[in-house]
Design goal:
This protein is α/β, with parallel strands linked by helices. It is built from 36 helices and 28 strands. An eight-stranded mixed β-sheet has the order 3-10-11-9-8-4-7-6, with helices on both faces. A seven-stranded mixed β-sheet has the order 17-14-18-19-21-20-26, with helices on both faces. Strands 23-25-24-27-28 form a five-stranded mixed β-sheet, with helices on both faces. α15 crosses α26 and α23 packs antiparallel against α24. The radius of gyration is 35 Å and the shape is globular.
């Protein structure tokens, strides 16, 4: 036997050395010789053998040390192994000598207990169909035999059938401190220990929590589930569960009876999800939560809306009728809709707000949106997670297969993105669309993501109503206590196919033969209550009749509804906002000279040298900024600072995130300085412009587009009085977040009456950076714009620009000077409504002298310029102009440079279209009329099949009744070449085409 392997043993022994110097002298210990040397090792091993035979043979001061080696745990303060439970053996307390066999048995028992705590879930009976068992899946993968004894010994606890056999079953063992199965009892027979462990860990609930880093959290869960009687529920609680199951089951039956051919993605087979959510809402209310933001898959949504969100049955039933909507817009199918309500909880006599976020069929897209909405609500309430929380619900195939789930979950502990604990609930149908779990994931569980985010995972059999209610309560108590994520895996099934129209027997015949024989969960639970004497058959029939009467009553009322209201389904209303603004006025966006000076001087001034060591490059940059301030000139970074600083002064909260936003990808912004001599010390420039300003939340994000942009969109829904900006590292990096644009930003208002003022920065420019660092894909966002190329608006209407914006689904712009950026950003808050802004920002232009504005362009009376017309020599003599070039964005620099180089300023006029959508028809027509004899051209640096050309061409030609010629690169599948020689060739040809008359 060697005592020298565990390093922590010798750390404990070092403490003994301080007490036992006389014994250390025997070991020839010196400060020059390591305690772990061979000499001391031999001494310790020989001394241990003497001690084990007779403790009086050596100094008693060594007793605690050697006790810890053969006891159940080491009591070590600085290196404590939380998985080695500590105990005082019954043999020692009775004065008997500890034998090697007794030590071995006690160690085996504590290993047995820990094995059940760690791996008991593998044998838990969580599948109501009894078709899947994680342990069985692991054994098949490992090509092991499948009999139960082998499962017990090899999958959960190898001690059984090995060290611990039948002859030990009636032996009494002292329980270690790190288990609560004994309650007030300190020792139990092995048979009873196993029985209790089986009851706790291998019943209807499977617990995965031993991977959690926080020992206090582990202890909380361990105590919560292991304490005898923990699963007990009162008769009143069981009756309430029965009533909730009755409502859940009978609502689905009612839908199926009244609308048998209607697709609704019913909850049949998983109705206990309602019990789970109701228990969470009740307990959350008791623990002080006042607002819950929910996002979920479409399966069971109608049931959730009725029984958890308490949406009126009349409104739900009316959704099944073909009716004309009251409001304009596309609306959405009923199983995508959201809502909000302030519920009164009778069990706690408290109100709680429950909101269900609208969700597209991209099941997991709503996850980051819900997280963002929750974080924003916490911000505005000054809440640290005590009163506002998120619940994100998943399908089993989606949670394991969709990458955005990880992108959202991995932000859970990031300071700028945390929601202080989110409940993740999986409605585990044990199947994807038609894909068996064996072919849709690589692990036994769909919830293994929880291990990556330090979240406990609670699996529960969906046909055990009491177990479902129990784990729900444990999960919400854990979340509220520790402010950490929890995953709940509701293992159930779907009674029909993917939808009610599908025939599941095509692909899962064995599973659905089993399902057809399954009683509904209310029948299973009612039989249990009747057997326990908690409720009679009469009681249950009375509850069923009461609910059926309610359903019939509301069905009749729904017949009287004649028009469909989309507004009734808003999940985050902005109460009073639209009523408080003039719908026909855009507020002033200019700012006074004093404000300009205050912000500009602050932005250009370095922190005190004695307090903060600045990078030398930043010192030079600030010196250049100070020079520009004296000259009354703003570059792009200054335009940003003036926009944000003035909004902060106006008490507009700004949240700005992205992978490189603090510095800016092209190192132009520098809103956060890093101390060059103190690690982690920063100076946040715009946080202190005004003493009473709003909060500027500027944060670098994780390397995530899908999850992060979704988070910011959700954040923007919280209030009309905030500015939310997400900036892509490069414009084309937004591609991986495309479902957010397609399903939320582009059309959320049309589908769900949900407005957002989110700003999306997409750095864009074909400047030799290769195909993946060039294009923000202007054409993609213009194609998604809600606009008819054949319809020209009424140009005589003075309110036309505002009406265009009001009816637009979003705004697409590509601005070319700092002042225009300033006004466009401030206009986001000045509009009497909110629209998303897709803004293509420059890369090379960020530092180019062409992108400059005078401070005078920021003053009151100035505004965003949808079009910047020619203001050079050509504008003075329009009759001499031979060519009028419309363009947008960065290409204006090249046009200007080559025209000046060829001395054609009098013959070529340039008009920059800053707002691409809504297209400024009135100003384009005005510019055309000025140069009526000139040849009309549209120039872009993008390829012909990309950029604004495909969008602008037909609209401009329809407006002017005249053909417009194209100047630009030829069509290409890639957005740009990565070969320098080709780029130079294309650029040369572009310039030649610009000046060709």
């Amino acid at each position: 036997m060697s005592l020298l392997k565990p390093l922590h043993v010798f750390k404990a022994a070092n403490k003994c050395l301080n007490v036992c110097n006389n014994n250390l002298n025997k070991a020839c210990y010196s400060t020059k010789e390591s305690f772990l040397s061979g000499t001391n090792a031999n001494f310790l091993e020989n001394q241990y053998l003497d001690w084990a035979q007779s403790k009086g043979s050596i100094d008693s001061s060594w007793d605690s040390f050697y006790d810890s080696l053969c006891g159940n745990a080491l009591k070590i303060e600085d290196v404590e192994d939380e998985f080695a439970p500590r105990q005082k053996s019954s043999e020692k307390s009775s004065g008997k000598d500890v034998t090697q066999e007794q030590i071995r048995l006690h160690l085996a028992v504590q290993n047995l207990i820990r094995s059940y705590q760690t791996r008991g879930h593998l044998l838990a009976k969580t599948d109501p169909l009894e078709l899947t068992l994680p342990a069985r899946m692991l054994n098949i993968a490992g090509k092991l035999p499948l009999d139960t004894k082998v499962l017990d010994s090899h999958i959960v606890a190898r001690e059984l059938g090995g060290v611990l056999t039948e002859k030990h079953m009636d032996m009494v063992f002292t329980l270690p401190d790190r288990t609560f199965i004994g309650g007030n009892e300190k020792a139990l027979p092995l048979r009873e220990i196993i029985r209790r462990l089986e009851h706790v860990y291998c019943g209807s609930i499977g617990m995965e929590y031993m991977h959690v880093y926080d020992i206090d959290a582990v202890q909380f869960l361990r105590k919560r589930v292991e304490t005898p009687g923990a699963y007990d529920r009162t008769p009143e609680e069981k009756k309430l569960t029965m009533k909730r199951l009755t409502k859940a089951v009978f609502l689905e039956k009612y839908f199926a009876t009244k609308w048998p051919a209607e697709k609704r993605f019913g909850l049949e087979g998983g109705e206990s999800m309602i019990v789970m959510l109701e228990e969470i809402v009740d307990t959350a209310s008791r623990l002080g939560v006042k607002s819950i933001v929910i996002g979920m898959q479409h399966r069971g949504r109608l049931n959730m809306l009725v029984n958890v969100c308490r949406k009126q049955l009349v409104d739900i039933f009316a959704q099944f009728k073909p009716m004309q909507p009251k409001e304009p817009g596309s609306g959405d199918v009923k199983y995508h809709l959201g809502t909000h309500i302030h519920r009164f909880i009778r069990r706690t006599n408290k109100y709680i707000k429950v909101s269900m976020s609208a969700n597209p069929s991209h099941l997991e897209t709503v996850g980051p949106v819900v997280a963002g909405k929750t974080r924003a609500e916490q911000f505005f309430k000054g809440d640290n997670g005590d009163t506002v929380m998120a619940i994100i619900m998943h399908g089993d195939a989606a949670v394991a297969g969709q990458g955005v789930v990880y992108e959202t979950a991995t932000q859970t502990n990031l300071p700028a993105f945390t929601t202080r604990g989110c409940l993740h609930i999986v409605c585990n149908n044990q199947i994807g669309y038609t894909t068996d779990p064996r072919f849709s994931r690589s692990s036994p569980y769909c919830t293994d993501l929880g291990k990556a985010i330090d979240a406990p995972i609670l699996h529960v059999n969906g046909d055990d109503g009491d177990a479902v209610a129990f784990v729900a309560r444990v999960a919400i108590e854990y979340r509220c206590k520790f402010k950490k994520d929890v995953m709940l895996d509701l293992v159930c099934y779907r009674r029909h196919g993917h939808s009610e129209e599908d025939e599941p027997m095509y692909t899962q015949p064995f599973m659905y033969k089993k399902i057809k024989s399954m009683p509904t969960v209310d029948v299973v639970y009612s039989n249990k209550l009747k057997a326990e004497g908690v409720a009679s058959d009469t009681d249950i029939k009375v509850w069923q009749k009461e609910y059926m009467d309610t359903l019939n009553e509301h069905f009749e009322l729904a017949k009287k509804v004649t028009k469909l209201s989309i507004m009734d389904w808003i999940d985050t209303p902005w109460t009073g906002f639209l009523e408080s603004v003039d719908p026909n006025v855009i507020k002033e966006t200019g700012i006074c000279q004093t404000t300009i000076n205050t912000i500009a001087n602050h932005f250009a001034s370095p922190p005190e040298k004695w307090a903060f060591e600045l990078h030398k490059g930043l010192e030079r940059m600030l010196a250049a900024r100070q020079k520009m301030v004296k000259e009354g000139i703003a570059d792009w970074p200054m335009g940003e600072a003036l926009a944000y600083g003035s909004l902060l002064r106006d008490q507009i909260h700004i949240r700005f995130t992205g992978e490189d936003v603090e510095r800016g990808t092209m190192a132009h912004r520098h809103h956060v300085y890093h101390h060059q001599g103190v690690d982690g010390a920063t100076y946040r420039v715009l946080d202190t412009v005004y003493p009473d300003q709003a909060i500027y939340s500027l944060h670098n994000s994780a390397l995530s587009e899908y999850g992060t942009v979704g988070f910011e969109v959700g954040y923007s829904y919280a209030s009309p009085h905030l500015l939310t900006i997400w900036e892509a590292q490069y414009g084309d990096f937004a591609d991986t977040g495309q479902p957010i644009y397609d399903t939320f930003i582009a059309n959320a208002e049309s589908k769900w009456m949900c407005q957002s003022g989110v700003v999306i920065h997409l750095p864009h420019g074909i400047d030799g950076a290769g195909p993946e660092h060039s294009s923000g894909r202007v054409e993609r966002y213009l194609q998604q714009s809600d606009d008819d190329e054949d319809v020209v608006p009424n140009l005589d209407d003075k309110l036309m620009p505002l009406k265009q914006l009001r009816t637009a689904n979003w705004i697409v712009a590509n601005v070319t000077n700092p002042a225009n950026y300033f006004h466009l950003i401030r206009r986001q808050l000045a509009l009497p409504f909110r629209k998303p802004l897709i803004l293509f920002t420059p890369k090379i232009g960020l530092k180019h002298p062409y992108y400059r504005s005078k401070f005078a362009d920021f003053l009151p009376g100035t505004a965003f310029r949808r079009v910047i017309p020619e203001d050079g020599p050509a504008s003075k003599n329009p009759k001499d102009v031979k060519k009028l070039i419309f363009c947008s964005g960065n290409v204006a620099i090249k046009i200007s440079e080559v025209v000046k180089e060829k001395k054609l300023e009098n013959q070529i006029a340039m008009c920059r279209i800053e707002q691409l959508y809504p297209l400024p028809y009135d100003l384009i027509l005005k510019e055309f009329c000025k140069y009526e004899q000139a040849k009309l051209c549209f120039c872009q640096e993008e390829h012909k099949n990309q950029g604004p050309w495909p969008f602008c061409r037909n609209r401009i030609e329809n407006l002017l009744g005249k053909k417009i010629h194209y100047i630009g690169r030829a069509a290409s599948p890639a957005s740009a070449t990565g070969i320098k020689w080709l780029h130079q060739k294309e650029l040369k040809e572009l310039k030649e085409a610009i000046v060709a008359l």
